[in-house]
Specification:
- By secondary structure, this protein is α+β, with helices and mostly antiparallel strands.
- The protein has one domain.
- Helix content is 37%, strand content 21%.
- The chain has five helices and seven strands.
- Strands 3, 4, 5, 6 and 7 form a five-stranded antiparallel sheet that branches. It has a two-stranded parallel ribbon with strand order 1-2.
- The termini are far apart.
- The relative contact order is 0.20.
- Keywords: Signal.
C-alpha cells in the first residue's frame, strides 16, 4: 500500500512539470514527423555568435533582443540533458531506437486515442520509415530536451529532421501558451 501512495504522490508532483514540458514540445513538434529517435539531440550554442543568433532570429521583425537572457540560455546548452526519450513522454508520437523497425500494430494499439485521420497518416509514415528507400526524408526526428530560462518563460529546443536539416528554436510562454519566436540557427544537410 505504501508503494502505491508513493507512486501516486510522485505522479502528482511530477505531472505539472511533465505537462509544462509537453506544452512547449507540442508547439515545437507541430506539423512535423510522428517518429522520434529515443536519443535526444544535443547542441552547444556559442557565446561569440550571440549577435548572429539575434540577427538571424530578428531579420523579419524585432521580436527578441534580450542578450542577457539569451546568454543565460546559451550557457545552459553546454550541459544538456542526455536522458533518452521514452514513449511516456509523448502522447501522439512514436519513439524508436536508431535502426529499429516499427511494429505498426503494437504502435497503433498504444496510440489508440488518435483520430482516424491521424492514424492513417501515422501508418503511412511508419511504412515509409520501415521501407527506408528514401534517403532524404524528414524523419525520424531527433529532439533535444527543452532548455528553460531561469523564470521558465523562455525555452530553446533543437530538432534534427532525419537527414534533411536541423533547427534550433526559441519559444516564449505568453499566458498559458508557448509561442515560437524564431530560429536561432537552421542548417540544411
Amino acid at each position: 500500500m505504501n508503494k502505491i501512495k508513493t507512486k501516486l504522490l510522485l505522479l502528482l508532483l511530477l505531472f505539472p512539470t511533465l505537462s509544462f514540458c509537453q506544452d512547449v514540445l507540442d508547439e515545437a513538434l507541430k506539423d512535423k514527423s510522428n517518429i522520434i529517435l529515443e536519443e535526444p539531440f544535443t547542441f552547444n550554442l556559442k557565446d561569440k555568435n550571440i549577435d548572429s543568433y539575434l540577427y538571424y532570429m530578428n531579420h523579419a521583425s524585432d521580436v527578441f533582443n534580450d542578450t542577457t537572457l539569451l546568454k543565460s540560455l546559451i550557457q545552459k546548452t553546454k550541459k544538456p540533458d542526455k536522458t533518452y526519450w521514452k514513449q511516456e513522454n509523448f502522447f501522439d508520437k512514436v519513439i524508436v531506437a536508431k535502426g529499429q523497425n516499427i511494429h505498426t500494430k503494437a504502435v497503433l494499439k498504444e496510440l489508440s486515442l488518435l483520430s482516424d485521420e491521424e492514424l492513417k497518416l501515422l501508418k503511412k509514415e511508419i511504412r515509409k520509415y520501415n521501407n527506408r528507400n528514401n534517403e532524404w526524408r524528414s524523419y525520424p526526428l531527433k529532439v533535444s530536451k527543452p532548455i528553460y530560462s531561469d523564470d521558465n518563460k523562455y525555452a530553446i529546443i533543437g530538432i534534427i529532421k532525419g537527414n534533411n536539416g536541423s533547427e534550433i528554436s526559441l519559444f516564449e510562454l505568453k499566458g498559458k501558451q508557448w509561442v515560437h519566436l524564431g530560429y536561432l540557427e537552421r542548417k540544411v544537410f
